[in-house]
Amino acid sequence: MTIAPLHRLANAPAARLVVLPSYRSLPRYELSFSVFTCIVVVGVARVFRIEGFCAHGCIFQSGGFRVFFRCCLYGFRFFLFHINVLPKFSYIYNIRQSGKKKKKNVIRGYQKEKRVALPIIGVPLGDPAGIGPEIIVKALKSAEVAASARVLVVGDRRVIEDAMNSTGVAFVIREVSTPAEALWEPDVLNLLNLANVDFSVFKKGEVSGMCGRAAYEYIEKTVELAMSGRIDAVATTPINKEALKAGGVDFIGHTEIFASLTGTKDPLTMFEVRGMRVFFLSRHVSLRRACDLVKKDRIIEYAVRCFEALRMLGVTEGTMAVAGLNPHSGEHGLFGTEEVEEVEPAVKELQAMGYRIEGPIGADSVFHLALSGRYNCVLSLYHDQGHIATKTVDFDRTIAVTGGMPILRTSVDHGTAMDIAGKGIARETSMVEAIRLAARYSAQYSKK
């Protein structure tokens, strides 16, 4: 049975129908009120012996009073009596009997939402003896993660089960060999199980070569999936440098591992916290050496690479700021000459090349300006200058993004915390943010 257009109802031979007015202007109804209204209207219909009536969202007919409810906005909001309004409250029309297939009804003003698949983020387990497994299972229960990404964990099943016991978080573990086999349901943890931890010798919270080697293998497999395009990005968890060395892994950290596995000469590290992005001209060198590295040519080369890394992330608008090295950016040579001799000439040359860049800007204010939106990123001139600024803003939400690679990688920026591993008290905030950021950037990420 279908409802004919209003202008064709008058002459259609069929049963009589009462059309109720619209309550289009009222706020959304709760289900309880909808059911109550239906009961009242059914009672009125029986008293006055009305053969049938309809309202937008439901149809009633005598002889069984079949009720059809249309569930709107994913089943949580109901619009009742939502039809075209006529001048009077009650009109009698005819309903045409038809054997044609019913068309799907669409509520006026709403279109069916086109569902877009969420990106698949691969998460290697990290060092099994650290807090990585715990923050993963906690993060996967987060509404932010569920709304932004589909997560595939690469690790060891028994380690995951141990983490669930420690945290009190429950999942149904689904072992898969490829992301295509995953079941993306809220209570399912999709796991590519490498089964590389021997629990007869495994000890939580202790550095071991076995765990260092296992952590490397998780990363290796996750990078393989990303390089083949089967996942959209990688969000890493903490690894332990001592454990890597004990396990015969000849790398000191994530960046070096990813550089080797992706064939990237010198990946860039960028921190992001609350929309503020920070690059680092130098990283793990002494402060004395960091000052020596502040050279015009190095700044120009590094700034160009930073602009390219931003472009790969889809960030093409805004201006880069270069932080000063000395107090007050040297006050024109009074407190140091690096700004006058190296930084300013580099900035002027970059501007002449067409890049939107300013500096040097005093380090005591440049990060505040970037956080308030004046700059899209800051090039800090040494490791701690940028680290202190970002982690003071929000330690847990400071996320590392590795740029310049053919794959996108984000990471928590804390360690394995062996001292609290297995206690279930590690905060998952950073892991949630790393997954969320990976998902957000993956849509725009360009490998070229």
Please specify the SSE layout and strand pairing.
Elements: E1 16-19, H1 31-47, E2 52-55, E3 58-61, E4 91-94, E5 120-124, H2 132-139, H3 143-148, E6 150-155, H4 157-167, E7 172-175, E8 188-193, H5 209-227, E9 233-236, H6 241-246, H7 254-262, E10 268-273, E11 276-280, H8 287-292, H9 296-312, E12 320-323, H10 338-352, E13 357-361, H11 366-371, E14 377-380, H12 383-393, E15 399-403, E16 409-412, H13 429-442
For the largest beta-sheet, the strand count, sense and barrel status come to: 12 strands, mixed
Given as residue ranges, the uncertain stretches (5+ residues, pLDDT < 50) are: 1-36, 50-114
What is the number of strand segments?
A: 16
Computed CA radius of gyration, to the nearest angstrom = 31 Å
Pfam families: PdxA
Keywords: Metal-binding, NAD, Oxidoreductase
Organism: Teretinema zuelzerae
GO molecular function: metal ion binding; NAD binding; oxidoreductase activity
What report would you give on this structure?
This is 4-hydroxythreonine-4-phosphate dehydrogenase PdxA. One of its GO terms (molecular function) is NAD binding. Keywords: Metal-binding, NAD, Oxidoreductase. This protein is α/β, with parallel strands linked by helices and 448 residues long. The chain has 3 domains: 6-94, no CATH class; 116-267 and 415-448, Isopropylmalate Dehydrogenase, CATH 3.40.718; 275-393, 3-Layer(aba) Sandwich (Isopropylmalate Dehydrogenase). 32% of the residues lie in helices and 17% in strands. The chain is built from 13 helices and 16 strands. It has helices at 31-47, 132-139, 143-148, 157-167, 209-227, 241-246, 254-262, 287-292, 296-312, 338-352, 366-371, 383-393, 429-442; strands at residues 16-19, 52-55, 58-61, 91-94, 120-124, 150-155, 172-175, 188-193, 233-236, 268-273, 276-280, 320-323, 357-361, 377-380, 399-403, 409-412. The strands form 2 sheets. The chain has a 12-stranded mixed beta sheet, with helices on both faces. A 4-stranded mixed beta sheet has the order 3-2-1-4, with no helix packed on it. A hairpin with a 2-residue loop joins strand 10 (268-273) and strand 11 (276-280). Helix 2 packs across helix 4 (157-167) and helix 5 (209-227) packs across helix 7 (254-262). The chain starts with 15 loop residues before the first strand and ends in a 6-residue tail after the last helix. Mean pLDDT is 81; it is low at 1-36 and 50-114.
